[in-house]
């Protein structure tokens, strides 16, 4: 579930990973079909807000939820992080595995296949990254984000970055779509009072390119909290 606005030529490729128990067939099929439409779905670059937040931090353990084709995992591993990268799409995980191998950082990255509506990685992490963990399918977003918060180790951080509005090139097709504000997302996490510190809560803008090459500005919603 990775969204960076970049596209590539269309092709079709079958996933090679077996489907584990606990992965919904419809969900897996949707995301495998989405990735299978193109040889590369996203740009391969790390999400900029992750770079901005994680760049100054000491490297530790990180959980990359919805890792897509591995752009964030490659960047994090290159910075010295030990990465657990998770996605429901076998096609995405195949590509992410190839990306970390090509970058020479495979020893720092563990891949796990999860349908986050049903299963969640075990353990705790110094950083949990949920980048654009949004889906057109039925998706218990707040339940998953609360599980992500529970996976943060003491002293660690949860970074949630989400789309804040429909891209300008798609607004005509989605005139009534609404996105939770950062404040609403933070409230929905239901964090234990006194145990968390809010470090960032904002709606940064960035430039992006649409599927037909059209430039535009996007609004992201960002929540960064630290467990005390």
From TrEMBL:
Gene3D superfamilies in UniProt: Vaccinia Virus protein VP39
Residue numbers spanned by region Disordered: 1-25
Pfam families: Methyltransf_25
One GO BP: methylation
Keywords per UniProt: Methyltransferase, S-adenosyl-L-methionine, Transferase
A Gene Ontology molecular function term of the record: methyltransferase activity
Keyword Methyltransferase recorded: yes
Transferase in keyword set: yes
Protein name: Methyltransferase domain-containing protein
Annotated source species: Micromonospora nigra
């Amino acid at each position: 579930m990775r969204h960076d606005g970049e596209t590539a030529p269309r092709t079709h490729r079958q996933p090679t990973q077996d489907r584990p128990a606990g992965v919904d067939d419809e969900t897996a099929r949707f995301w495998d079909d989405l990735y299978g439409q193109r040889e590369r779905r996203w740009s391969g670059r790390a999400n900029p807000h992750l770079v901005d937040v994680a760049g100054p931090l000491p490297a530790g353990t990180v959980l990359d939820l919805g890792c897509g084709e591995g752009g964030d995992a490659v960047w994090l591993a290159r910075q010295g992080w030990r990465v657990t990268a998770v996605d429901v799409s076998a096609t995405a995980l195949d590509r992410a595995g190839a990306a970390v191998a090509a970058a020479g950082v495979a020893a720092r990255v563990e891949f796990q296949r999860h349908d986050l509506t049903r299963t969640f990685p075990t353990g705790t992490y110094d950083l949990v990254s949920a980048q654009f963990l949004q889906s057109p399918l039925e998706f218990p977003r707040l339940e998953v984000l609360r599980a992500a918060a529970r996976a943060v180790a003491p002293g660690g951080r949860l970074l949630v970055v989400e789309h804040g509005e429909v891209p300008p090139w798609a607004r005509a097709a989605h005139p009534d779509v609404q996105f939770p504000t950062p404040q609403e997302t933070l409230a929905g996490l239901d964090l234990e009072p006194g145990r968390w510190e809010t470090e960032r809560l904002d709606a940064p803008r960035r430039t992006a390119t649409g599927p037909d090459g059209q430039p535009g500005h996007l609004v992201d919603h960002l929540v960064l909290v630290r467990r005390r």
